[in-house]
Design a protein that fits this description.
The chain is an alpha+beta fold. 31% of the residues lie in helices and 28% in strands.
């Protein structure tokens, strides 16, 4: 896997269990999204559920939802608003310490795909300051 470029793509329904395994390994139990929540995000906001695959193995993912608010809210953690202009990122999980590389690649690619004016990234509870999508 070392030196492999891999592929960045949206996750299919069949990829969600692997994403959930990374989520469960990467977050404390009280903060990790449930399998059902990740399935909802993939189904309702699939264009915002991106994975980095090397040799067909998911090694990291970023997922989120759209919101009509200009920042991350408790509601945006549970509801995807398809016409929202703010993308709220809920999970960034990477296996093998590749966090920064996957986040940078996902941000660049997703900005081109989603045509959003703002991104809100949450690393801890209570955050959600908007970030320009440019």
């Amino acid at each position: 896997m070392q030196g492999a470029v891999g592929e960045l793509r949206t996750l299919s329904e069949g990829d969600v269990a692997a994403a959930w395994a990374l989520e469960a390994a990467g977050y404390p139990p009280e903060e990790a999204a449930s399998l059902a929540k990740l399935q909802y995000r993939q189904r309702e906001a699939g264009e915002l559920f991106l994975g980095h695959f090397v040799d067909d193995q998911l090694i990291g993912f970023v997922c989120g939802t759209r919101s009509l608010e200009d920042h991350l809210t408790e509601e945006s953690m549970d509801v995807h608003e398809p016409t929202g202009t703010t993308i709220c990122i809920h999970s960034v999980c990477v296996d093998g310490g590749l966090y920064q590389k996957v986040l940078q690649n996902s941000s660049k690619t997703n900005s081109d795909r989603t045509h959003s004016s703002k991104w809100a990234l949450c690393e801890t509870e209570g955050c959600g300051d908007p970030v320009d999508g440019q």
